[in-house]
Design brief:
Helix 4 (95-109) packs parallel to helix 5 and helix 8 runs parallel beside helix 9 (220-232). The protein has 297 residues and is α/β, with parallel strands linked by helices. The protein contains 10 helices and 13 strands. Helix content is 41%, strand content 21%. It folds into 3 domains: 2-10 and 192-293, Cobalt-precorrin-4 Transmethylase, domain 1 (3-Layer(aba) Sandwich); 13-93, Rossmann fold; 96-186, Cobalt-precorrin-4 Transmethylase, domain 1, CATH 3.40.1010.20. Strands 11-10-12-1-13 form a 5-stranded parallel β-sheet, with helices on both faces. A 4-stranded parallel β-sheet has the order 3-2-4-5. The protein has a 4-stranded parallel β-sheet with strand order 7-6-8-9, with helices on both faces. The protein is flat. Bound molecules: iron/sulfur cluster. Iron/sulfur cluster is lined by residues 12-15, 71, 94, 96-97, 162-163, 191, 193-194, 221, 262.
Length: 297
């Protein structure tokens, strides 16, 4: 069995920055709150909690002390509420998410009907919605757009959750074009890191028998990678850690591809690879196992 591991695994820039900022403040303050999970990875959140980071659901749970804002950002309303309290703020909002927020705000201010392509329940999208203002809709895909029944001659602005797939985003943009809007402004706010990981995942999944996507089951970008791989390869599995691996998946499998979400630490990817290597060695005592870092992406 050979392993093909995507070149880009482990934290993306924004997640690494958020975790480092949280760790830094915990070193000096000893304790801090995070409004929602700082990133969507259970293992990292648990590790930070041991260092003193307490996850709260609402700012009402934190009157004073240090509050860490996640890389997904917060709405202007929440920022206003926080400013009324005696809280020291550590804002880890990813700069690429900030860019999407300012696109949403400028479209809203210029009177456009704003369409956000993404998951309406995701914290990043909830904040984008508030930035864009009243005439805003969130759609998952082109089919969701049809349900909006947009009128012809509307001025429409469209942007995306940073971790969406480009195909889905373009599908919505084309569906908006079909409604013959008076004008259409398109902001491609999909993060480059997400695009690179998706392209690599698609490419690797074409060249392997089984694909593993390592990451949080609540992580939007990990789920997107899983969907991308699943379209190419039925034998694609999302695993949070090596404990989720099942031996029956690997029957008649000679090449395994591995990729990871942007909020998955490299250490977990390495543990998954290590378990695969050691099980393969046990199963085929003489078999040689090669780990190849995929250099194409
Ligand atoms: S995936 Fe992109 S937008 Fe999201 S935190 Fe990472 S770098 Fe930022």
């Amino acid at each position: 069995m050979r392993l093909k591991i995507a070149r880009k695994v482990g934290f993306c820039f924004g997640v690494r920055r958020a975790v480092e900022m949280a760790e830094e403040v915990l070193k000096t303050e000893g304790k801090a709150y995070s409004l929602g999970s700082i990133i969507h990875n259970k293992q990292v959140v648990e590790a930070l909690s041991k260092k003193g980071l307490e996850v709260i659901k609402s700012i009402d749970e934190a009157d004073r002390g240090v509050l860490v804002i996640s890389s997904h950002g917060i709405s202007p309303e929440t920022a206003g509420e926080i400013s009324k309290r005696s809280l020291k703020l550590v804002d880890t909002t990813c700069p690429f998410v900030r860019n999407a927020q300012s696109s949403a705000r400028s479209l809203g201010r210029e009177g456009y009907t704003v369409i956000i392509v993404g998951d309406a329940n995701h914290p990043e999208v909830k904040a984008l919605y508030d930035f864009a203002g009243k005439k805003t809709y969130v759609v998952k895909d082109a089919a969701g757009l049809k349900a909006l029944k947009l009128k012809p001659n509307e001025r429409i602005g469209v942007l995306s959750q940073t971790t969406q797939s480009m195909d889905n985003f373009l599908g919505v943009v084309n569906a908006i074009r079909d409604t013959k809007p008076k004008s259409l402004r398109v902001f491609n706010t999909i993060c480059k890191d997400a695009q690179v990981r998706q392209a690599a995942a698609r490419d690797i999944s074409r060249r392997v028998n089984l694909m593993l996507i390592v990451g949080g089951k609540n992580s939007a970008n990990t789920k997107r990678l899983f969907e991308v791989c699943k379209k190419t390869l039925r034998k694609s599995y999302l695993v949070e850690t090596e404990r989720d691996l099942r031996s029956q998946w690997f029957k008649d499998v000679s090449v395994v591809g591995i990729t990871s979400g942007a909020s998955t630490p490299k250490t977990i990817v390495r543990r998954v690879a290590k378990v695969l290597k050691s099980s393969a060695v046990k199963a085929e005592k003489k078999g040689r196992l090669q780990t190849v870092h995929d250099k194409r992406k």
